[in-house]
Design a protein that fits this description.
The protein is an all-alpha fold and 272 residues long. The protein has one domain. It is built from 13 helices and no strands.
């Protein structure tokens, strides 16, 4: 099974991406959680364009990626996981959980270190939130995130399969929890004990700075609960809350060229 996953990594990632993207996009049409305030075609064009731009950038700058590094780490027995005699299934699950924890702390850093926040805030300047927001990240943030991820993979000695599964989960949960989808309260109530639901993550995109610095998790909600950064509901309610930041709210800021320059331009406030 592991060999099959490794051999078909590209097809697995692409297949899951297209499937979840389509399902969430359909869900947004059938049962939207919030009314959109801006032009959806403009936002989708810009948000999806930056996905292509980021993919090309990473391909050009990184001869090896996190999965490739995990091969090298495994062959050379690098990392914490290789220091202990752990059965393969346990090692895979452990690595996935620890990688998710690492991404949580990376997210916290991008909010609290001024230079990193200037890069990350482009993700928050989206005045609406939907499935495409989950892929809206500045190229410089993507580059730093890849370097961080590679270092964590080496430190942990994460098995190749665990890195592939984690990359797929991170991508899928980012689309899911940014989705403008109304999930029944009875279902959301139980799912959010384990996974970050759209109602949980939407609070993180509130224009209220105290809420912007809550609910940092992308996949598991455990880290927000453990480290006391969890908030269950927005102060203004989901239908009335305002999405985005107090800066870069004009319609032209949703165009790709303006999104790319936001880290280098000043607004009324520099931090959430």
């Amino acid at each position: 099974m592991s060999d099959w996953i490794v051999g078909n990594e590209l097809y697995i990632r692409l297949g899951f991406f297209l499937t979840i993207f389509t399902l969430v996009a359909i869900g947004e049409l059938i049962a939207p959680r919030k009314r959109l305030t801006g032009s959806k075609p403009t936002r989708w064009c810009s948000n999806l364009s930056i996905v292509v731009f980021n993919s090309i950038t990473i391909k050009l700058l990184f001869p090896i990626l996190a999965v490739d590094v995990s091969y090298i780490a495994t062959e050379n027995q690098w990392g914490l996981i290789h220091w202990f005699d752990i059965p393969a299934p346990v090692a895979i699950v452990t690595a996935i959980i620890l990688l998710d924890c690492a991404i949580y702390f990376q997210h916290v850093l991008f909010h609290h270190v001024p230079f990193l926040w200037r890069l990350h805030r482009m993700h928050h300047t989206d005045v609406d939130i939907d499935v495409t927001t989950g892929a809206r990240f500045h190229p410089l943030e993507i580059i730093l995130s890849m370097i961080f991820k590679i270092l964590i993979v080496v430190l942990l000695g994460a098995p190749v399969v665990s890195v592939i599964i984690f990359e797929v989960l991170l991508n899928l949960t980012a689309m899911f929890n940014h989705g403008n989808v109304k999930i029944p309260k009875k279902i959301d109530k139980y799912v959010r004990y384990f996974l970050v639901t759209p109602d949980v993550h939407r609070i993180h995109h509130s224009v209220d700075g105290t809420e912007t610095n809550r609910n940092f998790g992308f996949c598991l909600t455990w880290w927000d609960l453990i480290f006391n950064t969890y908030q269950s509901q927005p102060k203004q309610g989901h239908t009335n809350m305002t999405i985005g930041l107090t800066i870069f709210r004009k319609p032209h800021e949703s165009r790709l060229k303006n999104m790319l320059t936001q880290p280098f331009r000043d607004g009324k406030s520099e931090s959430p």
